[in-house]
Amino acid sequence: MSVQYVGLHEINGSLIFLDDVDNVGFEETVEIRVDDGTTRLGRVVQIEGKKAVIQVFEGTNGISLKNTRTKLTGKPMEMPLSKEILGRVFNGAGKPIDGLGDIYTDKRSDINGQPLNPVSRVYPRNYINTGISSIDALMTLIRGQKLPIFSGSGMPHNELAVQIVKQARLSGAEDSKFGIVFAAMGVKNDIADYFRRSFEEAGVMERVVMFLNLSNDPIIERTLTPRCALTAAEYLAYEHDMHILVILTDITSYCEALREFSSSKGEIPGRKGYPGYLYSDLASLYERAGIIHGAKGSVTQIPILTMPNDDITHPIPDLTGYITEGQIVLDRNLNQMGVYPPVGVLPSLSRLMKDGIGEGYTRKDHSDVSNQLFACYAKVQDARSLASVIGEDELSDVDKEYMEFGKLFEEHFLSQGFNTNRTIEETLDLGWDLLSVMPRKELDRVDDEVLDKFYDHDRAVERFELKEATIIPELASKGK
C-alpha cells in the first residue's frame, strides 16, 4: 500500500523537506502533487533519521507547504528502454522531445547502473576510426576506452564532437552494429539545434540516441543527463550486442550543476567550491565504459570538458585525468593559427593505444610511425624555443629541417578540415610522407627494415611541393 504525505516541513531552492518519514530509500523516486493538480517528479537525495530531503526535477515554484501531497514510489528513477530509442531525441531526464510519441518499452532500468565486478571486465582492444588523423594515428581511440577531450572556452569542441559522430566507424562487418549516444548538458538552444541539424543532414541520425539538456532547464535534470545516456548505452551494448560510443558534452556544466546542488544541501565544499565527492561522482560515470566478459557489445566514452581559464590543473580536468585512460587536449595557439582540429599532440595520449593498434588491428607500422611523429614534433618545439631566443637564421641545418617539418605537420596532418574523413591507411601514409621530409638519420625511433619499406624522400618533396634548396641533399639521401 502506497502512503501519501500531506504538507512539507520546508522548501529550499529545488529541495523540499519531509518530516516523520518511514521506509524511505536513498535515490528513491517521489511523485509530488501540487495545488493546481499537476504532478512533479523528485528523488530522495538525503536521509537524516526520519527527515527526507527531496530534489524536485521541475523546480519548487508554486509548491505549497500545506497542501502538497508527496508519494514515495519505493523504487529508484528508471528509464524506459527499447531498440526504438535509436534515432530519437530525449530531454535530460530521458523523456522524448522530438514529437514522435512515447517509447514502447522492452524494459525499465535504474539510471544509476548496476554494480560491475571488476574481474568480469575484458581488456579493451580494437580501435574506433574517427577519420581524424591526429586522433587515429597518435592517440587512437580503443573500443571500451574512456578518452576525454580537454577543451577551453571558444574552442571548436562542438564541431569536433559533430565530426566524430559523423565519421566514427568500426572496421569490417562490425560497423553495422555501431551506434552513438550523444548527451549535451547545459547547452544553449542554438547549439542544441546545431547538433540535431548536423546529425540529420549527415544522415547518421538513425544510429544516434540524443539527450539534450538546455541551459534554461533545471540543474537537477543536468545531473541526470549523463546517467540516462549511459543507461541507454549499456542497454544497447549488452542487450542488443552493439558497440556504443558515448559522447558527453560538457562535463564542466555537469560539475557546475553538482556544485550548485551540493551548496543548496549545505554540504561542506571542497576544492574551488566543488563537493568533496566530485572524484567518486565522476568515477561513477566514467567507469561505466568498458567491455564485459561474455558480452558481444561494448561501451566507449568520449567526455568533453572545457577547462576554466585553460587550466589543466583545475579540479574537473585534474580528477578526470586520474580516472580516464588518457586525454585529447585542444591547443589554443593552434586554434588561433587556423588549424582544425587544434589537437595539441604533446600533452595528449591514449594509454590503451598500444594494445589496439598494429598488425591485425590497424597496420603493422602504426606504432613506428606514431612514435617517430611524436619524437620529431617534440624536437620541433625545442627548435622553436631556441629560435625565439637566438633567431631562426642562427639555427643549425638540422634544426631548420625540424622547423620545416613542424610547419608541414601542422598544415597537412593536424589540419584537415571539418568535412575531411581519412581512413587509417591514408593517415599512416601521410605520416610517412611527412617523416620522409626529414633526413633519414634523424628517424631514430624506427628500424632500418621499416624505413627501407616506407621512407621515400623524393615522393615527399613532390607531394608537398618542396623546393629542394630547402633540403640539405647530403642529409636527405637515403643512405645517410
Task: Please describe the topology of this protein.
Elements: E1 4-6, E2 10-12, E3 15-18, E4 28-33, E5 39-48, E6 51-56, E7 69-76, E8 78-81, E9 89-91, E10 107-110, E11 121-122, H1 133-138, E12 149-151, H2 157-167, E13 178-187, H3 189-201, E14 208-214, H4 219-239, E15 243-249, H5 251-264, H6 278-286, E16 291-292, E17 298-306, H7 315-323, E18 326-330, H8 332-336, E19 343-350, H9 366-390, H10 397-414, H11 424-435, H12 448-454, H13 457-463, H14 473-476
Helix pairs in contact: 2-3, 4-5, 6-7, 9-10, 9-11, 10-11
Domain ATPase F1/V1/A1 complex alpha/beta subunit N-terminal: 10-67
Family: Belongs to the ATPase alpha/beta chains family.
Pfam families: ATP-synt_ab, ATP-synt_ab_N, ATP-synt_VA_C
Strand segment count = 19
Helix amount: 25-40%
Strand order of the largest sheet: 9-14-13-15-17-12-18-19
| N-to-C CA distance | 86 Å
Structure annotation, total helices = 14
Poorly predicted regions are 469-480
Kindly give the count of domains.
3
Do you know the CATH topology of the largest domain? Rossmann fold
Shape: elongated
Which CATH C-level class of the largest domain is it? Alpha Beta
Q: What is the typical, i.e. mean, pLDDT?
A: 90
Secondary-structure-based class equals alpha/beta
CATH second-level architecture of the largest domain: 3-Layer(aba) Sandwich
Work out the strand percent: 15-25%
Largest sheet: 8 strands, mixed
Gyration radius from CA atoms, angstroms? 26 Å
Domain ATP synthase A/B type C-terminal: 355-455
Pfam family, one: ATP-synt_ab_N
Family: Belongs to the ATPase alpha/beta chains family.
GO biological process, one term: proton motive force-driven plasma membrane ATP synthesis
